[in-house]
Write a structure and sequence with these properties.
heterodimer; A: alpha/beta; GMP Synthetase, Chain A, domain 3; 3-stranded mixed β-sheet; 4 helices; 21% helix; B: mainly alpha; Ferritin; 10 helices; binds zinc ion
Chain lengths: 159, 252
């Protein structure tokens, strides 16, 4: 009989196809693992409503677990995913990969205020500039470091 | 009209708004004025289509007739779509697209804020999720309205023209009929008349900052919520529905 802990450990092997450095556990999209008799239900939540990775993630979970245990994946929208659920481990991995991890503050500059200061993942300088609120995927914004001039992705805060 | 029918129509309308605007925005793919804006507009389109997906899933489960969401999105006739006329208007140019987006974003944010308290938990969940995305959209469109309005003579002229034309579609944001009355009574949907003042003052604030003026005494279009569309809609549908019509039940 498999344990919940075992399933959580297994899920560490599945990564977000758009950010291969992060596991779905690091990302905080696995919400509940529940085990009953001989089956297991994994409940996941999308980062963004239109996140195209959700189907692939769902298939990956089934493929990984079903040889061991009868597995079902359920999708929930509530409570809505927030970058606060990203693990510390996940943040570090993102930074090493060259993506600035989400700051804890949501970009409140609805109008006229300065955008969030995001340090450069390469040289750590805070002298950076937001190029665009929207980046290569729904969850990222596009920044540039004004110190080392490197353009970089920022995993934007969502609360 | 039963509660179930009213709630179904209400959800489908919310989904139609985001589907049609998402389709319009996706026409920008590969045509944005700069790469960053090409990416931004298509990102927003993706969010809107994702929201549509969630709303249609809820709608088919309320209706409970075994429909799938592709049938809703791709196999209805023109008169069966009940989106706001605003969202089906042509892209025209970047400024026009931004003004259309701005009017919609202010409205949609207010709708979702209120829907977070819907007595239907599933709808409240969709609203909570979508609201976070909509805030980013609104920030993007507001900043561009200001930059273009208070920009060059040319950009100012173009967005002012967009405001003048699109203003005729803004009364419809506050349209109500039997569907709305039903869902408002039960706390399922929102009473949009409650936030008309907020919409007006937010829009005025940004347009003023952008040195743009609100047209006075403008005639207003209506009909979207009754399935009566502007001439542009048929062309949009024929492109959007082509694959499902040509290859019924196809899947990607
Ligand atoms: Zn740097």
């Amino acid at each position: 009989m498999v344990t919940e802990k075992y399933i959580w450990e297994q899920l560490e092997q599945i990564s977000d196809p758009e950010i291969p450095v992060l596991s779905i556990v690091d990302l905080g999209i696995v919400r509940i693992v529940s085990i009953s008799d001989d089956s297991c239900i994994v409940t996941i939540t999308p980062t963004y409503s239109g996140c195209p990775a959700m189907n692939v993630i769902q298939e990956d979970i089934i493929k990984l677990l079903s040889p061991t245990v009868n597995t079902k994946v359920e999708m929930t929208l509530s409570p809505a995913w927030t970058t606060d659920w990203m693990s510390e481990n996940g943040r570090n991995k993102l930074r090493e990969y060259g993506i600035a991890p989400p700051e804890h503050e949501v970009d409140k500059s609805v109008l006229f205020a300065k955008p969030t200061v995001v340090p450069c993942p390469k040289c750590k300088s805070s002298h950076t500039k937001m190029i665009s609120q929207f980046g290569s995927t729904a969850c990222k914004a596009h920044y540039q470091c004004l110190e080392c001039l490197e353009p970089f992705d920022y995993f934007k805060c969502l609360k | 009209m039963t509660t179930q029918e009213a709630f179904y129509s209400y959800i489908v309308r919310l989904g139609d708004d985001s589907l049609i605007l998402g389709q319009r925005l996706s026409e920008w793919c590969g045509h944005g004025p700069v790469l960053e804006e090409d990416i931004a507009l298509t990102n927003i389109a993706l969010d809107l289509i994702g929201q549509t997906n969630n709303l249609y899933e809820l709608a088919v489960s309320i209706e409970n007739k075994g429909k799938n969401i592709d049938q809703l999105a791709f196999l209805r006739l023109e008169k069966e779509y009940e989106n706001l006329l605003l969202v089906e208007q042509l892209n025209v140019d970047f400024g026009y697209t931004i003004v259309r987006q701005f009017f919609f974003d202010v409205y949609r944010k207010l709708v979702f804020e209120a829907l977070c308290n819907s007595s239907d938990e599933r709808l409240a969940g969709i609203a909570e999720k979508s609201l976070k995305e909509t805030k980013y959209h609104l920030k993007h469109s507001s900043e561009w309205v200001i930059r273009l309005g208070d920009g060059t003579e040319e950009s100012h002229r173009r967005v002012q023209e967009a405001v003048n034309t699109l203003w005729k579609f803004t009364d419809e944001l506050f349209f109500q009929d039997e569907v709305d009355q039903n869902v408002i009574e039960l706390g399922l949907g929102v009473d949009n008349s409650n936030f008309k003042v907020t919409w007006d003052s937010h829009v005025e604030h940004v347009l003023t900052e952008a040195t743009l003026t609100i047209p006075s005494n403008s005639w207003q279009h209506a009909g979207g919520r009754k399935g009566i569309h502007t001439e542009h809609f048929g062309y949009l549908l024929s492109e959007m529905q082509y694959m499902q019509r040509a290859y019924p039940n196809m899947e990607w």
